[in-house]
C-alpha cells in the first residue's frame, strides 16, 4: 500500500509539472508546432515513444510515453487532430520497483493555416484536453483543459524555422496549482539531403505547480529520415533545463501519411 501511494504521488508530481495537455504538439521529436496541414481528404498517423528519466535525492523514476496521433485534412488548410497517450512510470527507489501505467488524457484539436505567402505562413491551433486518464493513478489532469496556440513557419532552403506561442487554461480548484499556463518555443530544421533533416528546438512553459521552479524548460536535438514522401522515421534526445522537467529523454517515432 505504501509503495502504491508513493508511486502514485510521484506520478502526479511529474505529470503535473509537465505541459498541459499532456500530448506532444509538433512533428516528433520536436515540441514546437509547425503550420503544415495534411490537405483535403488526407490523413497522417503518428506513433511515438518518449523514454525519460528523472533522478535526484528523493526521486529515481523512468517514464515511457507512447503517443498515437491522428490528423485528418478537412480542407487544404484545416486539420482536425486526435491524440491519445499511454504512460508507464516506474519508481526505481521502491523495493521492488513499482510501476503505474495506463492511458493518459486525450486531446482533440484543430489546426488552421490562415496565412500562406511565399516562405512565410501562420496558423492557429485551438485544443481541448479531456480527462480520460485515471486520476487516482495520477494519469489525468482531472479536468478539461482548453488551449490556444499561434504558430509561425518560415520555410527556407536549407533552413526552416518554427515559432510556437500559446496558452492553456488549467481549470483546477487546488491552491497549489497555477490556473494559467503559458508556452513559448522555437525550432529549426536543416536539410542534410533530400530525405534527411537535422532538427532541434528549445521550449519554456509555466509549471503547473506553484511551488518550486516556475517554468518547465528543455532542449531537443534529433534527426528525421523520410524513407518515402509518405513515411518518416525520427530519433531524438531531449535534455531538461529546469527542475520540473525530466533530466533526459530518448525519443523515437514514425509518421505515415495516406
Give me the strand/helix succession: HEEEEEEEEEEEEE
The CATH superfamily is monomeric porin ompg
> How many strands in all?
13
The CATH architecture would be: Beta Barrel
Helix content: under 10%
The strands making up the biggest β-sheet line up spatially as 1-2-3-5-6-7-8-9-10-11-12-13
Kindly describe this structure:
- This protein has 258 residues and is mostly beta strands.
- The protein has a single domain, classed as Porin (Beta Barrel).
- Strands 1-2-3-5-6-7-8-9-10-11-12-13 form a 12-stranded antiparallel β-barrel.
- The protein starts with a helix and ends with a strand.
Compact summary:
With about 260 residues, the chain is mainly beta. The protein has one helix and 13 strands. It has one domain: Porin (Beta Barrel).
Keywords:
single chain; Porin; 6% helix; 1 helix
What is the secondary structure topology, with strand pairs?
Elements (H helix, E strand, L loop, with lengths): L1 H15 L26 E13 L4 E16 L2 E14 L6 E6 L2 E12 L2 E11 L14 E11 L3 E11 L10 E12 L4 E11 L8 E14 L2 E10 L7 E10 L1
Antiparallel strand pairs: 1-2, 1-13, 2-3, 3-4, 3-5, 5-6, 6-7, 7-8, 8-9, 9-10, 10-11, 11-12, 12-13
Amino acid at each position: 500500500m505504501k509503495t502504491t501511494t508513493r508511486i502514485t504521488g510521484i506520478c502526479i508530481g511529474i505529470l503535473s509539472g509537465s505541459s498541459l495537455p499532456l500530448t506532444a504538439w509538433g512533428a516528433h521529436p520536436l515540441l514546437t508546432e509547425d503550420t503544415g496541414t495534411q490537405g483535403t481528404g488526407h490523413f497522417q498517423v503518428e506513433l511515438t515513444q518518449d523514454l525519460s528519466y528523472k533522478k535526484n535525492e528523493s526521486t529515481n523514476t523512468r517514464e515511457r510515453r507512447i503517443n498515437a496521433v491522428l490528423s485528418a485534412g478537412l480542407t487544404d488548410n484545416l486539420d482536425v487532430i486526435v491524440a491519445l497517450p499511454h504512460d508507464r512510470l516506474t519508481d526505481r527507489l521502491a523495493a521492488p520497483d513499482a510501476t503505474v501505467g495506463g492511458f493518459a488524457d486525450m486531446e482533440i484539436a484543430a489546426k488552421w493555416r490562415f496565412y500562406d505567402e511565399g516562405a512565410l505562413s501562420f496558423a492557429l491551433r485551438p485544443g481541448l484536453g479531456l480527462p480520460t486518464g485515471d486520476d487516482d493513478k495520477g494519469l489525468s489532469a482531472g479536468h478539461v483543459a482548453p488551449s490556444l496556440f499561434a504558430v509561425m513557419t518560415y520555410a527556407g532552403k536549407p533552413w526552416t524555422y518554427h515559432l510556437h506561442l500559446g496558452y492553456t487554461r488549467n481549470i483546477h480548484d487546488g491552491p497549489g496549482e497555477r490556473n494559467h499556463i503559458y508556452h513559448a518555443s522555437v525550432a529549426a530544421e536543416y536539410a542534410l539531403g533530400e530525405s534527411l533533416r537535422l532538427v532541434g528546438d528549445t521550449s519554456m512553459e509555466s509549471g503547473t505547480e506553484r511551488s518550486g521552479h516556475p517554468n518547465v524548460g528543455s532542449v531537443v536535438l534529433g534527426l528525421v529520415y523520410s524513407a518515402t514522401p509518405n513515411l518518416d522515421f525520427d530519433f531524438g534526445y531531449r535534455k531538461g533545463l529546469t527542475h520540473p522537467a525530466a533530466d533526459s529523454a530518448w525519443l523515437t517515432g514514425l509518421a505515415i501519411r495516406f
